[in-house]
């Protein structure tokens, strides 16, 4: 079944009614501080989520945090697959990341970021991750991830805590990655 057939059966896709916004680049202060919790589950939040999906898809991303479009709010969206190829499309408000206790099984894989355009580098992450939070209507959600989905849950949660993935890299690697992206 093609994506068009699925979309016809499922109704509008996330982001179809949103407006793509510019992606904030590494170095912008909004990316380097913890985001504020969302307090109102209202039409403004629903509009923000639609804009986030539209922005993520326009930039060919698999995940996007609100601060990546300059909004100081604990919200992220994602559209990616787990280790078995099962696709998850979701928006999570006020997420809490839960990782297995140490020692964790790590996976090392290529990671990139829309806020550090261009380069990818091997980055270790927990092979499993869980995020608990709310959907844009205020209903509780829980996403359990493996593979790329686990990586995405950790990456986007980091954004909301003010950490960009290159901040987790050794200083020399971070400097090279930022130079390749034309930043700093």
TrEMBL record:
Any idea which UniProt keywords this protein has? Hydrolase, Iron, Metal-binding, Protein biosynthesis
* Protein residues bound to Fe cation: 113, 155, 159
- Which GO BP terms apply? translation
Query: Would the keyword Transcription turn up in this protein's UniProt record?
Result: no
Q: Which domain of life is it from?
A: Bacteria
Catalyses which reaction(s): N-terminal N-formyl-L-methionyl-[peptide] + H2O = N-terminal L-methionyl-[peptide] + formate
Q: Name one Pfam family in it.
A: Pep_deformylase
Cofactor annotation remark: Binds 1 Fe(2+) ion.
EC primary class:
hydrolase
What is the required cofactor set for this protein? Fe(2+)
Instruction: Give the active-site positions.
Output: 156
Q: Where is this region: Disordered?
A: 1-22
InterPro entries, A to Z = Peptide_deformylase, Peptide_deformylase_sf
SUPFAM superfamilies per the UniProt record, alphabetical: Peptide deformylase
* A GO molecular-function descriptor: peptide deformylase activity
The keyword Iron is assigned to this record:
yes
- EC number in record: 3.5.1.88
The protein's role, per its UniProt record: Removes the formyl group from the N-terminal Met of newly synthesized proteins. Requires at least a dipeptide for an efficient rate of reaction. N-terminal L-methionine is a prerequisite for activity but the enzyme has broad specificity at other positions.
Instruction: Report the family membership.
Output: Belongs to the polypeptide deformylase family.
Against PANTHER family, the record matches this protein to: PEPTIDE DEFORMYLASE, PEPTIDE DEFORMYLASE, MITOCHONDRIAL
Q: What is this protein called?
A: Peptide deformylase
Q: Which organism is it from?
A: Glycomyces terrestris
Task: Give the source lineage, highest ranks first.
Answer: Bacteria, Bacillati, Actinomycetota, Actinomycetes, Glycomycetales
Gene that encodes it: def
